[in-house]
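Hi all, posting the design record for the shared folder.

TITLE: backbone redesign
STEP: 1 of 1
STRUCTURE INPUT:
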């Protein structure tokens, strides 16, 4: 990655200056390597030396020319030093050995040590700070962001101010701010002359800040350390995870590091158990919920949730699990990966290195005599075939499938290689969905629909069966759009949360007979229409007229409709 300009100013170095700086840097690192070798210690390169832990004061660290960079769960600490023969360094080592189980020394160069001192935390922490697998966000940290009614712009300003004062707090601030804004993902993306930080809120990415190179490297090292990733690997993709403790809940962070053109891209997925919702909270209409509840109570058969990546299938799957969960019933899942931990059920995770795949895992699960089985995704015939057989063998089975709509479920399974009679006998119901953003009730704007919009809404309503409760539509009916500037409540986005757009396709006798003939998706859609089942666009129109979402948002998700 190219060097970032300090304070926004670009200074172009001549080739000669660049070469001299490079030679001086190499000499400093070679000297540190020699000191390490002579003293039988390990040398750490600049990228391997994480920013220091405040287990000693900045003054102590400077005087002893040593800094603590890691504290392990077993009480061992890692201490980086410039010269292990330094008397003040040796005195500090003796002091630390009396306080901790073990002190392991590492040697760093003078420039590396100076960087550590520049980024030293402001004060000693009163409590030990866990550095592997878990990070503590205090109530005050997150509450500050919530009480300040953080917006995307304010989060960017806070990150800029915090990183100037105490770089060690930058990651905590970024995570706290993202959680306060209801973000599901954080992306840290190195560019040629800067590092862009974006957060995903309600499915949309927003830029919140730009980091300088030194701060990016510190945060990258911290994330790798927390996620138990290899610090010295920069040209391979790595995945890991760590958790955030906040009040009474544990928020899991899935981390992904990917080598890119300039440096390593970082993606953090925020899995907050607070995001788990019930089926009605997901936005499923009352008439559809009544139908779905009937199938959820059937003791055997296959229930599929379908849609593209990012459409909320897993969230709906978890909502179904929570709805049917009973003390007298044994539920086992096989997931890749486990996204949320649920009480009262047995959750297992795919591990291909141990030959625990969807197919082999399902066979093992069946030997546990479960009442209900959840397979997080049907990817191929190897996972689909045993799933269908389990549904025919008296188990209730839930899974997800990538299809455009509910009508495409049976044709997709048959295309995978499943036998049509088996699909016909096993399938109970298919739920297809998309996610749209909900308008912020505090700042949404009412307007009159255009002539074309009115015709679209009217035509869609005209085909909805009477079993569905629909809003009225006339020439005076208004629709709502988002306020582009947003407000404090929605964080300046104009939207507040997301809601599902659903359709259900139930396997009636007519449907089962048709499945056995290997039907096309169009043929299944026609039967769905004949059965009086609403499609997703019709469900979206109902939510538009209720003022829940906007025409613009529905077209963003479904494509041009008008």
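Okay, here is what came back for every position:
SEQUENCE:
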């Amino acid at each position: 990655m190219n060097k970032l300009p300090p304070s926004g100013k670009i200074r172009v170095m001549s080739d000669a200056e660049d070469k001299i700086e490079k030679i001086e840097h190499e000499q400093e690192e070679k000297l540190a390597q020699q000191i390490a070798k002579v003293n039988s210690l390990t040398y750490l390169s600049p990228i391997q030396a994480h920013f220091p832990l405040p287990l000693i004061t900045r003054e102590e660290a400077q005087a002893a020319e040593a800094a603590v960079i890691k504290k392990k769960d077993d009480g061992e600490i890692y201490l980086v030093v410039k010269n292990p023969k330094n008397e003040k360094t040796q005195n500090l080592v003796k002091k630390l050995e009396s306080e901790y189980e073990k002190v392991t020394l590492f040697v760093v160069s003078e420039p590396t040590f100076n960087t550590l001192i520049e980024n030293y935390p402001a004060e000693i922490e009163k409590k030990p700070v866990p550095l592997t697998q878990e990070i503590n966000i205090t109530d005050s940290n997150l509450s500050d962001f919530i009480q300040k009614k953080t917006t995307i712009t304010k989060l960017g300003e806070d990150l800029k101010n915090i990183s100037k004062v105490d770089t060690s707090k930058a990651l905590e601030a970024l995570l706290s701010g993202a959680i306060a804004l209801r973000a599901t993902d954080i992306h840290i993306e190195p560019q040629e002359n800067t590092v862009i930080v974006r957060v995903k809120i309600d499915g949309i990415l927003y830029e919140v800040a730009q980091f300088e190179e030194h701060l990016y490297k510190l945060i990258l090292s911290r994330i790798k350390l927390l996620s138990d990733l290899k610090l010295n690997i920069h040209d391979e993709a790595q995945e890991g995870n760590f958790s955030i403790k906040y009040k009474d809940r544990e928020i899991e962070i899935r981390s992904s590091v990917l080598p890119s053109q300039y440096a390593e891209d970082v993606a953090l997925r925020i899995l907050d158990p607070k995001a788990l919702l019930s089926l009605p909270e997901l936005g499923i209409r009352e008439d559809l919920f009544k139908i779905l509840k009937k199938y959820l109570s059937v003791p055997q058969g296959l229930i599929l949730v379908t849609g593209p990546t990012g459409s909320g299938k897993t969230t709906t799957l978890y909502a179904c699990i929570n709805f049917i969960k009973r003390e007298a019933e044994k539920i086992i899942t096989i997931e890749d990966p486990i996204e949320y931990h649920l009480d009262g059920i047995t959750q297992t995770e795919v591990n291909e290195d141990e030959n625990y795949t969807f197919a082999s895992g399902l066979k093992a699960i069946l030997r546990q005599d479960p009442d209900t089985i959840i397979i997080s995704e049907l990817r191929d015939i190897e996972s689909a075939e045993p799933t269908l057989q389990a549904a025919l063998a008296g188990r209730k089975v839930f899974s997800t499938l990538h299809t455009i709509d509910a009508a495409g479920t049976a044709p997709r399974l048959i295309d995978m290689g499943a036998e049509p009679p088996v699909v016909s006998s096993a399938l109970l119901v298919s739920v297809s969905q998309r996610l749209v953003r909900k308008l912020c009730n505090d700042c949404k704007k009412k307007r009159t629909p255009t002539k074309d919009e009115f015709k679209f809404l009217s035509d869609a309503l005209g085909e909805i069966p009477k079993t569905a409760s629909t809003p009225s539509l006339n020439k005076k009916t208004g629709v709502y759009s988002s306020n582009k500037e947003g407000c404090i409540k929605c964080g300046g986005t104009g939207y507040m949360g997301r809601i599902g757009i659903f359709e259900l396709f139930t396997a009636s006798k007519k449907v089962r007979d048709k499945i056995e003939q290997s039907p096309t998706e169009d043929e299944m859609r026609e039967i769905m229409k004949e059965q009086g089942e609403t499609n997703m666009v019709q469900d979206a129109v109902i939510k538009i007229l209720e003022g829940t979402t906007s025409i613009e948002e529905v077209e963003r998700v479904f494509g041009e409709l008008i």
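COMMENT: The CA atoms of residues 139 and 246 lie 7 Å apart.
Let me know if anyone wants the other runs.
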